[in-house]
C-alpha cells in the first residue's frame, strides 16, 4: 500500500488495512462533534499488540483504542 500515514509506516499492508477499516467503523459510530477529535490526522502512534491480536491506536487527546482484525474496537 502506498501513502501510509507516517505513524503507520511500520505496519504491513494487511495491518494497515485493519487500521483503516476499523477506523472507519469506529468513526462512523461517533457523533459529528466527537469525530473531530478522532480524525486520522489525530493518530499519534500505532503499536502491534501481538498478545491480543490487535493494534493499539493512540490519539493526540490521550485516548487509545484496541483495533481488531474483525473491525471492532475496545
Radius of gyration: 11 Å
Tally of separate helices = 2
Strand content: 15-25%
What is the β-strand count? 3
List keywords for this structure.
74 residues, alpha+beta, globular
Give an overview of the whole structure.
The chain is α+β, with helices and mostly antiparallel strands and 74 residues long. The protein is built from two helices and three strands. It has one domain. The longest helix is centred in the first third of the chain and has 16 residues, at 13-28. The protein is globular and about 30 Å long.
Topology:
Layout: H1 13-28, H2 32-35, E1 43-49, E2 54-59, E3 64-67
Antiparallel strand pairs: 1-2, 2-3
Summarize the structure.
By secondary structure, the chain is α+β, with helices and mostly antiparallel strands. It has helices spanning 13-28, 32-35; strands spanning 43-49, 54-59, 64-67. It contains two helices and three strands, in the order ααβββ.
Amino acid at each position: 500500500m502506498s501513502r501510509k500515514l507516517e505513524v503507520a509506516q511500520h505496519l504491513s499492508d494487511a495491518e494497515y488495512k485493519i487500521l483503516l477499516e476499523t477506523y472507519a467503523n469506529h468513526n462512523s459510530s461517533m457523533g459529528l462533534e466527537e469525530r473531530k477529535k478522532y480524525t486520522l490526522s489525530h493518530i499519534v502512534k500505532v503499536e502491534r499488540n501481538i498478545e491480543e491480536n490487535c493494534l493499539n491506536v493512540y490519539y493526540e487527546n490521550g485516548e487509545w483504542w484496541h483495533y481488531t482484525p474483525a473491525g471492532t474496537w475496545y
